[in-house]
Specification:
This protein is mainly alpha-helical. The chain is 63% helix and 3% strand. It has a two-stranded antiparallel sheet. Strand 1 and strand 2 form a beta hairpin. Helix 1 packs antiparallel against helix 6 and helix 1 packs parallel to helix 7. The longest helix is centred in the last third of the chain and has 29 residues.
Length: 158
């Protein structure tokens, strides 16, 4: 099996399969209502909706590069990296979920068209596609843990 195919399979498993570490993204998000998605455990914490927005933002950066959009630049300083609660509310939870779902479909479709040579190519400066692709997968799993935790706190607080 090609390396890029194995990585693509990990994205699919993490998203809607049965990952070894627990529940998939779709399983964890399946019962999250807009009220739960917008709730923040503390003023300085992120809501589930903000976390999903943030995950989508970094996936979009990779998608744009894979689509050969060399003008697109993601930035830690971008307002869209961690969007404000007001913007998140105005966009709405269902739209945020749909955008995340679309990012999954695009990312998997684009990765399936690649071969292993992509992994050693430069993504940005000294970062390879292998590093950014596996980094985004790790980033998704990291934030998935936060989402599951925020859900559990909400249930205790409710």
């Amino acid at each position: 099996m090609k390396q890029v195919s194995e990585i693509t399979n990990q994205f699919e498993t993490t998203y809607e399969g049965k990952p070894w570490y627990g529940s998939s993204i779709t399983k964890i998000l399946s019962d999250v209502t807009e009220k739960v998605a917008l709730w923040k455990p503390t003023e300085n914490a992120h809501s589930i909706a903000q976390l999903v927005w943030h995950m989508t933002y970094w996936r979009q950066a990779l998608i744009k590069k894979l689509e050969a959009d060399l003008e697109y630049k993601a930035s830690m300083e971008s307002e869209d990296n961690w969007s404000s609660p007001e913007k998140i509310r105005s966009v709405g939870w269902n739209t945020i979920l749909e955008q995340f779902h679309e990012s999954q479909q695009k990312l998997v479709d684009l990765l399936k068209k690649q071969d292993d040579s992509l992994l050693e190519k430069t993504y940005y400066k000294e970062v390879t596609y292998r590093e950014i692709i596996t980094g985004i997968l790790q980033h998704d799993i990291y934030h998935l843990g936060q989402i599951a935790y925020v859900k559990s706190i909400y249930k205790l607080d409710a």
